[in-house]
Amino acid sequence: MPVALIDGVRLNCLQLTPESGAGEDLVMVHGLATNLAFWYAPYATELSKRYRVTLYDLRGHGRSQMPAAGYRPDDLRRDLLGLLDHLQIRRAHFLAHSYGGVIALKLACAAPERVASLVLADTHIAAARGEGSTRAWRDSDRIQQILDRTGIALDARDPYFGYKLLTEVARLQQAKAVVPAELAELVAPWLGTGSNRTASQWLTLMERTSAERELLSDDGLAAKSLRRLRFPIMALYGDRSQARFTGDELLKLWPHATFRRVRDAGHFFPMTRADEVLRLCRRFWDGELGEGSSHRAGEPDARHFRSDRIYEAGGSWYCLTRERTTLGPFAEIETVRAELAAHIASPTAARAAA
């Protein structure tokens, strides 16, 4: 893989190009404690049929260099901007998960002309962490019981709980201790091939550099700057994620953006629900998810997170009716569409809608 030297730091990167050789640029930014493999399959391999896709490892991650310092949000933003210049990418679409979204937003606020569009996947920003300080989220009480039962001294309502959990799970893995299944679900990327290496690298980053202090510092993303962003934005948030607090705050700032909920999903839904995320991204980039077309008759005229009535979960298809009942599971999307049409046409559904 090619290496770019940005401000004296070696960054590992990878580009995939459409067979035609043409196509707009798409840059994908991973979150903390992962690496560019997070986005490689199926995202980069699939989206490179349409875009020139650029992936890279954040400093201190994957195969990039791990300097002793330089992990503040502005440092990581300069890394990304320097990489764009190095690769001669004048303007690009961005797809970013978690802390990768913080980096993409920092770039967007500093150089909005470089951003064609932005998809945020469960990004949490410092301002919303403050607003959501010690607030319960959907799974916080259940997770706290698991933490207490297993002797892990963390507070599930801590605004930085997710990052601290990564470190605790990494320590469990290094000690070859069993990670409770309920916690393992929250940190899914470490459960696959190479998980021990990822855990070891994260601990090294936390214990031998200034990254822990710098990464958990204020990211400086203020409402005034975020409000000025005018390019197309889609924000995806999992129902079961603490980051949903940020989604609620961003909803107030971006009247032009599309906000979508991912049903019953946690923070790492881009890995567990890749097909669904890919479909949403394609529809967004094709202009199918505009806010003006998302209202249905009978809905309140207010902006909120939206989701499709027909959706996929666990490899099966479901549909949510107007009566808030669920039809499914079905093996094929065509089957659930037919069932929904039959339900709408039924006398019972007609009476309920009256």
Please describe what this structure looks like.
With 354 residues, this protein is of the alpha/beta class. The chain has three domains: 3-131 and 218-293, Rossmann fold (3-Layer(aba) Sandwich), CATH 3.40.50; 140-215, no CATH class; 310-353, no CATH class. The chain is 41% helix and 17% strand. It contains 15 helices and eleven strands. Helix 2 (73-86) packs across helix 3 (99-110) and helix 6 (161-174) packs across helix 8. The protein starts with a strand and ends with a helix. Mean pLDDT is 88; it is low at 292-297.
Percent range for helical residues?
Answer: 40-55%
Uncertain stretches of 5 or more adjacent residues = 292-297
Total discrete domains: 3
Briefly note the CATH topology name of the largest domain: Rossmann fold
- Following the backbone from N to C, one meets helices and strands in this order, namely EEEHEHEHEHHHHHHHEHEHHEEEHH
The CATH homologous superfamily of the largest domain is called: Alpha/Beta hydrolase fold, catalytic domain
Structural class: alpha/beta
* CATH class designation of the largest domain: Alpha Beta
Morphology = globular
Q: Largest sheet at a glance? A: 8 strands, mixed
CATH architecture of the largest domain: 3-Layer(aba) Sandwich
The main sheet orders its strands as 1-2-4-3-5-6-7-8
Beta-sheet strand percentage? 15-25%
Number of strands: 11
The helix count comes to 15
Average pLDDT over all residues: 88
Global Rg:
21 Å
- N-C termini distance: 61 Å
